[in-house]
Structures are given as structure tokens and as C-alpha cells.
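User: two proteins, same treatment. go.

Assistant:
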Amino acid sequence: MTETAPPRLPSDAGVPEPPPSGRLLARAALLTAVLTVAGALLGLLRDQTFAHVFGADTDTDAFLVAWTVPEVAATLLIEDGLAFVLVPAFSLALVERARTPDPDPVRALVAATLPRLALALAAAGAVLIAAAPAVVAVLAPGLPRADLAVDCTRLTATCVVSFGLAGYCSAALRGHGRFLAPASIYVAYNVGIIGLLLLLGGAWGVRAAACGVALGGLLMVLVQIPALLRARGRRAPAPAVPAARRPGVRAPGALRLTLVAPVVVFALGRQTQVLVERFLAAPLPAGAISHLNYAQKVAQMPMVLSMMLCTVTFPVIARALAAGDTDRARRRVESDLSVAGAIVLLGTAVVVACAPELIQLLFQRGAFSAADTAATAAVMRVYALGLLGQTLVGVLARSYFSEARPLWFPACAMLAGLTATAVTGALAVPAWGAPGIAAANALGITLTALLLLRGGGRRRTALSARRVGGQLVRLLAAACAATAACRWGASLAPTPVPALAVGGLCALTVFTVTARLLRVREFTLLLPSPTRKLWHAR
């Protein structure tokens, strides 16, 4: 499972591009953050609308089995799989373009990959529509409304094509340093689902939500077309070192199976954790799958926020490695790990401390009862224990796959975590039900994160597991203190909104102070300059 890193280029092989300015990265990160938060908030509004209209019963369980299709498709075709292959591929094509602009390597890459991908996506969507009954039987055996789940699965199967095209467009734009349109796709997606829920939910039931998935997927593609048209013919700056001269890397005329296969296995392994959860939850009382789904959606908000910076820096790391600048790539990855870890752990503190208030505020209305709130909050607290692992896996996977060469270690680490999730979940369900499934998920993804972190020192980026691990342990200590402070602050208020406000403020204050006292690097940089000099001199 260990790959030998290719040798570095000699110093006269070419001059790498200058690193993007901090201002440029900050602007791109801010735009991505704003649109990502907007998409996430619309996702919460979508879930609130769904819960208000349908509650948590056998119909919602049936739809959420079909919801597995867009979840897997998003991971494989937008967020992880396709992006991990295409962003480095476009970066390498831009490197080659700097040396031999005619014929254009970027257009050659598109011509070699897009038609084949579109054909494969159409075939996969057709197979999924035809095999929907078998898919439902495998995902949720014994589901009370299997017929409804089959109908919804066939409607959501259209997203295989739309998500694939949307993911291709997003990767191409990000590889060229354009982030606005890719960051807006989930805004468009959720607008389509919410619109059809409000218009047709009463008449069509949960099938309206499935139709919304089909409409939202189409909007994901359409919202990126203007940016693609503007980018056509423009040439982004690229390093002077051509891809064809880098040892161990082929010129990007086509994506080879040896490069794509480990990425696909990794992405499918990560998303299969959700399938394992629903398989184990299918025999539980009605609503268990829905409780797991709502808890997961809310708990993942800190992870989504923590990954915004990494979305912007992924092409930067790929460009640095394409230019042979491994030191810059390593510094970028280590900084991303610390910043993303701080964000997700602060969010985890609030999620664990204020779980009942969050669920009550977001969902407890209409058909969603107080009992549903209690069950969902209990699951969410356990699920949140794996958020740091989820974030570390997301950051570290980008550092592995930025190398644009076959790497099986991340896939093997993910399969090890998946095995731990399945075995632990099967043992925990009889005693603890849905919270046991959430605990198994947290255990499995944390194991994967530890394996990836341990193996990162043998990659071209040569991460220091001891240095990064030390920073994360300090952040974990700060998060524990922030959780206690947040729970104390929330207990002072009688209603959810002020409880969350007071608890969140307490968590932020205690987390920041504790991280400074523990000398977490990103927090010591916030100190005034004279104080910082004295601090580091100690």
C-alpha cells in the first residue's frame, strides 16, 4: 500500500509559478464561503420543509433510501471522486499548455474525456432506473414502503447524468482558478428541490422531493454554463514546468483507468458508510432512518464550513506539485489541517452541547414531534464525535490525489474504516439502536483519518504526523473546554435561540483562549506582535 514518490526535478528544470497571493486566496475563499453557507442554509431549509410537510414516518424512510442516489452521486461525481481526478488533470494540462500551446492540451483533455464520461453517465443512469427494485431491496431489506422507494429511486437516478456533468464543469473551472460558479451549484440545487416541495408536496407526497432532485441537478449544470463560456479561449497562468517532463506523470491527454480506479474506490468507500447506516437502520422502528439523516445533515455543518478553504487550495496544491515545489505544497496542507481542524472542532463543541436546542429550532414543527427531536439530538451528539475524522479525511485525501498518479493507500485506508464501521455497527445496533450506528460511523472515519495522517509522511508532501498531531491534540483539548462552557451558557436561557446565542459565544471565547494558552500556532498569530515575540521566546 506504500507508493514510492517520484524524484524531484533538478533546479534547472524550470521555474515554478509564483504562489497565489494571500489576498487572492482570501478573496476566493470568502466568495466560496458565502455561497457554500448559502447552499448549506438552503439545504437546512430544504430539510426543514421536508420535515414540516412529511415528518418522520414510513414514507420519509422510503424517500431517504432513494436519497442515497444523489448522496452517492454527489460524493463520487462532484465533491470527491471526479474532482480528485480532474482538478490535477486540468492543472497538468495548464502546465503543458505553457510549453506547447498549440494544439491546446486543455482542449485535448476535454475532447478525450467529456464525450466518454457523458456516455458512461447516461448508461449508468439507465441501468439504475431499470434495477431500482433490486437496489432498494439491497439498501433497505424489509422496508415497509418499498414500492414508494422504487419510484423515488427512478426519479433521482437522473442525477447520475446531471451531477456528473456538473462535477466536470466544476473541476474544470476550479482547475482554472474560477470558484464562484462551482460554489453556487448547491444554491441552485436546493432552490429546485424546495420549489417543487412547496408547489407539489401536498399533491405528490415525497415523490415531489424526488422530482426536485432531478430539477436541481439540471440547475447545477445550467448555473455554470455562463462561467464556462467566459473562460473559453482564456488562458490561466501556469508553471513553466511541463507535465510531460515530470517523472512518473503522463501528459494529460486522457484519464487512465489506473489513475481513476483508486479515486473511485476511495469515494465509493466513503459514501458506502451512509449505505451501511441505512442498511443497519432498516429493521429499527419507523423513523430511525429519518432521525439518522436529520442528525447527519445538521452535524455536518461544521465540516462543510471547515472544508471551504480546502476547496480553494486544492488547485494550489496540485499546481505546486506539478511545478515540483513540494515544500509549498506541504506547508499548504499542514496549514489547511490546522485551520480546518480548528473550525470543525469549534463547531463540534456547539453541536454536542446544544444538540436538543438545534434540532428543536430547526425541525420541531408540523409533523416533527418532540419525541423526534429527542431521538435526533441523541443520535447527533454521537455522530458529531466523528466530525474531526471526516474533516481530516477530506483534507488529507486532497493532498494524496493532488499528485495526479495512481495511489491506492487512501482507498485501502477508507476500506479499513468502512470495515470497522460495518462490524462495529452490526454489534452495536441490538443494544443501542440508531446511536450505536452513529458511534460506528465515528469510529470508522476516525480510523481512516489516522491511517491517512500516518501515511502522509511518506508522500511527496512529506507531512510531519507528529507536528500536525500535536496541533490537533491541543485543539481537541480546547474543544472539550468549549463544549463544557457552551452547555453551561445554553442552560442559562429558557428557549432555543438565546440558548444557542449564549452557548455559542461562550464556546467561541473559551475555545480561543484555551487554544492560545496551549500555543496552537494559528491562534498565537492572533496575538499582538510584541506579545507574540515574548510568547515564542518562552
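Protein 2:
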Amino acid sequence: MPENDVPRWPSDDKDTSSAEPQGAKREGEATVWLPMSGLANGKTEELSVPKVTPESGSWFQPVVEAGSLDEEPDVPKTPTPQWSAFEPVTPVTPAEPEQDEEPKTRFVKPVQPQYGDEPDWDQFDRDPVTPPREAEPPAPEPSQEPARQESPGQEPARQESPRQEPPRQEPRRQEPRRRPEQGRIEPPLPAPVPSATMHARPVRIEPSEERFDAEATVGIQRPEPPSQEPPAAGTEAAPAPKPKRRRKALLITTLVVVLLLAGMGGAAAMPKVSNRLGLPWAPNAPKGEIPKPAAVTRVLHGPDVNGAAPTKEGLAAALAGPAAAADLGTLTGTVVDAATGNVLWDKNSGTALTPASTTKILVVAAALLSMDHGTQISTKIVQGAEPGTVILVAGGDPSLTSLPLGTDSPLYPGAAHVDDLVAQVKKAAGGKIAKVQLDISVFKGPTSAKGWDPEDTAAGNTYMAPVLPVMADGGRADPKNDHSPRVANPAAALTQKIAGKLEAQAGGTTTAPKDAKVLGEVKSQPLSEFASSLMQLSDNLMADVLARQIALTKGAEPSFTGGATATMNVLDQAGFDLTGVQINDGSGLSDQNKIPAKVLSEILAVAAAPDGKDPRTAKLRPLLAGLPVAGGSGTLEKRYGDPASAAGRGWVRGKTGTLSGVNTLAGVVLDTDGRMLVFALMSSGSDQNKGRAALDVVAATLHQCGCR
């Protein structure tokens, strides 16, 4: 590069060319002819160039068009080059001037090149003695930052982060310039501003509008940053190019959405999916109007009295074989027509035998007859006599559940939650609770009955716990498993659980003061539901607790003796013949209990009688709702699986009873004519499994019998 980046061509306007090609005059102005090579068509042509004279002006004299955008009133202007960086010019190689002639300055009119031809921009930067360079290495990535020219006296501009270029304006065409000593045509430049600190880096602009860093060019300055001012009136700014990546991302997103919609549409067309989503085109979609909901009640109605009743002879013939099975041991029993109350079959039904759990029929019947069916058993926590002390007051509900709020007990549906009770106490206490005491004074007497096996209340057994007036989940260790082992002292265990939830200590037993402030209270299921859970599970503990509730209702002592006595009194007062009945508990665990089969069948027959026939029927009807269903629920869920008894599945409903050597079954069944039959069967001296199976066969035979 020449020193100080100063152009080295004549500074005057004299014509220093050594020879002038032949030319012609154009209206008094001399012209010269220069050969032009390297054109797009590959030919060499001569270019007519006006001759510069003192009268015509200097070669360096800038020409400013009237009305140019560069004009500003009263402001001196820097000559604006008329060269367009977007329109390449094919260089012209003039004839070599002779050295002995005085050089002349020629004003050369530029020739418009063919678009698409790439000019050799490097030729403008070469020194006359520098040979043409070989092909340049691949250009670097185009810079997003436009080249800027630094003002004189300022520090060189720092490299800033890339920023989006504003819309470019249509460049104005400029006149080319020429270096006389090199014989090349170059674009004219504005007069450089002398500056000692001026080190602008040249930028090469391709016709495709891409910019590349290039070597410093003699006399060519970098274009100034584009102005942020809006374009002048009448000038329409070209829109900025859209990023390709954004268009590509938009295309991919659109494709993904289309595929998802197509997949969802295909899935929705599948029958299983459309059925589950309830779509209109689903195969199981309603074909007509949705019916209005019908009112449902849980009130049981009496049997159909229109069907033909079996005859005694026909029934006796049907039961001759099953009732005489050796596996039954000693069998007593009776079959009654529920519609009429007539006895259709009888085998020693007046003989009192050990009833086992069918004792519960008497207890539930007495409770339904003597108590309101909506009665709920209350459990409270009251303020103690000492500050920071509360007392858990038991009311006789063993069905409290320790499951979290919102989770219903699978054993006792509708049972109260311990967490509910604790939450009430926390809210009402108004301070820290230090001690939780237990009041179980509502029950009296021993916790086990006469005739019980010592193991019946031992810790770890799966069918009974000590009869106490409060506990969680019937004393089970697992609140969801009916056959879970029972804890040794379920009332104390519940007190400890509540104390832990209140961050307090369990403080033993006491008696709550009268009229103590109630901090929390929860209640059991209503009596009808309580009795249903008792019958379904054949829950021994609930039966003995219910016997004590009958005693409390009748003003008797809430103990085993008081409960048994109150039960007998209620049934006797209701008109039932209790001859031969002897009970010591409400559960039937006592092997000292004795009940004739006819007492069981009489109570069930009243419960199953037609509506309005017997005033006791309405109160006893819930007794039937709690009877387990053969092969379907409760203690009959896993029975009636043998071929000999399978006909009774779903038709037989009965209360079971099992002790060592004792098997009993009492309930109702529909025969083939739709007639309801009441039965009570008691087997003594039989094997448990074989005796049960034999009883199931007898009940299934009743269902299959038209028996006329």
C-alpha cells in the first residue's frame, strides 16, 4: 500500500496522456477512444471518453446533482461518490501510455456492466508493481455489524455485538473514477478527512449484499452506519430479510401440530377411546334421550304373594336326602312360607341347640325393636379438671376408624374418624394440651363372658377383642383387614394414638366431670347401618357392644348379663316365644347359649312378612338387609362354590354360625316360583367344613324346589 494512504496521481487538471487514440468531436468537445476488454460478452470494445480541458473542469471536481439527498442548505458538503456497491463495473485496461509524453487526465464515462458478472474488486487495491493475487481463501462468515467510520480525533471504535441491519435504501448510481498512472477505472471516493488516528478497516460488499472483511484499500473508506432516521418521502424502504431459522422452526412446529392433530383424530376414531371419552360417534353412545333419574330407597318390601307356595309333601320329598346327610350330625330346623307364616317343613325345631353366631339375630332384632333406627353412638373429648388436660369419654362405639379423613372404612362404612375428633379438639382447646386421659365408665362388669374360651380375648386372635366402650377399627391392627390380629387393650391404644396426634402424653383412666366442656365429638353410623355391618362381618365385638346399648336404652346394667337380659325382655315383650332360649352374650361365642331353631325362623318370618301384615315387620325389615349373600358378600362370600350347592349362589341370604362342632345357618331364599321361604338350620356334632357344605346343599335345594 502507498505511504500514508495518499493517492499517487496528478493533482492538476492537465491532460498528461502521451497519446490520444483517434476520436471524433462531439459538439465541440474532444473525445478519445479507449479499448475496453473483459466485458460480459467476452469481446473488446472501444469506449468514447470526453476529454478534460480547463474549460470543462477538473477530473477531481465533484458533480452534485440538483435535488440530491446529500444536499443540505448552507452546509459545505463532502463530494458524494456516484458509485454503487451493488452494481459491479467491469474494469477497463487502456493502452499503455508512453513514458516520454506528458501525462494527460481523461474523464472516462463508465460503462454499465452486465449484472451477475463478478468484478475483480481486488484490482482497485493492487499496487502497479504488485502482480494479481491468486484465488482468495474462503471468505469468513458475513458480519452482521455494518462497517462504521470513526470521527477524527476519536479512539478506534470497539467491536460491538451483532445487531440487526435496518432496511437498506436503494443506492444511487455514482460515476466511476480512474487512476491515470495505472490505467484503471475505479469508483470515486469522498475526500478523505486527514486524521492521525484513522484506521478504518475496509469492508468488501458483494452484489448479493453480503459484507466481508478485506485488505485496506487505497483511498476507499468504510461506509458509515446506516442512519436510524426514517426514509425520505417518496422513498420506500426495502423490507429486512426474515431469519431462516425462524421460518424453519415455524415450519417444524406446524408439522408437529398437524401430526398431533392427526394422531388424536385417529385415536378418537377408535371404539375403545371414543367409548371412554363419551364421544358422540362412540359405539356405546346413547341412541336416544337420557332417562331421568329415578328415586331410590333402601326400604325392603315384602315377598310376592302371587306365586304358588310349595306343599309340605313336596318340600319334604325334596329335602329328604339333603337333610339326612351324615355330615350334618344332629340336625334341627324349620322352613316357613314368609307370605302366610305357615310352617312347610320342620325337624325338631323346638329343640334348643348351641346357636353360635346366629345369636346375633336375636340381639339385632331386639335393638331394632327397642331403639330408634337413626340412633348414633357418641364419642367425646372434654376438658379435664386440670389445666392442659383433656379426657376421652367413651360412649360404646368400637367402629371409630384410624384411616385418614376422606378415606371411608371398608369394614364399617360411614364410621367416624379419629382425625376428625382430634381436629376439633385442636381448634377448641385454645392452648397446648399436655395430657389425655380415658373415661370408660359407661360399661360395667368383666370384658369377657361366661362360656368363652380364654383365647377369645387373648392378644393376637382374629375374631374378638376385650369388650370396651371405645377403640379404633374394632381393635384390629390393620384397619382394612377383617381378619387382622386384635390388640390386647384397644381402648388404651386409642388413647395413646390421640395423645400422639395432640403432642401430649397419655394419662391413664379417670371419670370426666359432669357438665365438662366438650372440645370435640364424633358419632357412629346410624343404628340400621351399624347393625348391617355387624351382620355382614358377623362382628362379635359389635354384637356385644350392641347388647350393652340395648341395656342402656332399657335402663339395665351395660354388661354381659345386663345386655342378655335386656335382649330377652325386648323380644318377649314383642310377642316372640322364647321357650328354651338361654343367652350369656350378644356375639354367640359362649358355648352356654341355647336357642331353638323355631325362635330364629319366627323372628326372620316377621321381618320378611308382607307389608302391613304385622306391625313389627317395619322395624325388623333392616335385619334382612344385613344378611350375607351366598357367594357374594360377608361370611357367605366364599361359600356355595361346590356343584351340589352352586344353585343357591345369589339366591340364598343367611346368617352363619360356627363353633367347635357347631354349624348353623338361618335366612331367606326364593324358590323357582318366586316364593320367599324362611329357614333355620342348626347342626350339632358336625365337622366345620363338611357341616357347612351340607347346610349349603339344603338351602340350595330350597331354591330349586317348586315342591308341589
